[in-house]
Write the structure tokens for this entry.
Amino acid sequence: MTTELGPAVMEITGTEPVSSEDQARERYQRLAANGWATVGIPSHLGGSGGSMADAAAVVAAVAASGPGIPIGETAIIAGWLLAAAGLALPEAGCCAVPVLRPAEAALTGTGNGGLLTLRAPRVAWASWASHLIVPVPLDENRALVVTLENAHAVIRHGVNLAGESRDDVETAGVPVQAAATADMPFKDLLAGLHAAGALARSIQIAAALRRVTGMTARYCTQRSQFGRPLTAFQAVQQQLAELAAESAAADAAVTFALGRRDAFHGQVSAAVAKARTSQAAGAGARIAHQLHGAIGVTQEHPLPRYTRALWAWRDEYGSETSWSRLLAERAADADEPLWEWVTADE
């Protein structure tokens, strides 16, 4: 993963987690104004350019500063959907609508003059977005990607466990701003979008877990019990080692996925990343709270902001169970021996 972008992003986000929605919006606006929200989206589509590794570095740096800033929604998830159809980015502040079934999105008419009817639950950051990016079925072999102004949709605000915007979105025959064809079946477009979302959440989980691991290690070094620092106790050392191992495994899974060429269309790499990081999120949050004790559940302490995000992100775009099942199915269907399939380049 490219790392030199992280410090530049951290200069804007700071090292302290956001404490209010107003602060989160202010940080997001500064990031977007400096082009960080669209890193990874090709410049010919209106983005800032750069590779997927660059986008991942930015998303990781933002996640390390705490939940509440939707960089991943544009840079990775919406960016992948726009690139799949060659559709230009309407504005930096946009989000993808992860439609689950063809019946949830339908377009009457074609092209820019089409009218969109949409019903999608718990869309991440829809109430923040200037535009919604929506996949729509076209025919057996093709799908459409359309952009829609947020103001034309009915949005019912909701939140996840971390307090991040998760909104129900509905439209009834409203005009789309732009449309382009993706030369793939609708189900494949949805699968790729789901994989992009899984990878984005995996990057966020790994970054937040690194922050939690450092936070917990510092606390155990500074906190004393029976006249000795907590790190002097073997049981605490064991727990810290397990926490560090979970964080390292999450990092390795993300690095693996970013280095593969099938991350979205093949889904296998995204499945590996999301299954392992979601598992690490649950185990890591549990250990961190055990070692922090009562102070770790107070509103004044930063730990709960990260652990609530870990618990929320582990289930979004598929849990470890659902992605592990996909991996098992792909392994069972492989034409080559299991070891060769696991270690293949794609």
Notes: The chain has a mean pLDDT of 88. The longest strand covers residues 115-124. The two ends are 18 Å apart (CA to CA).
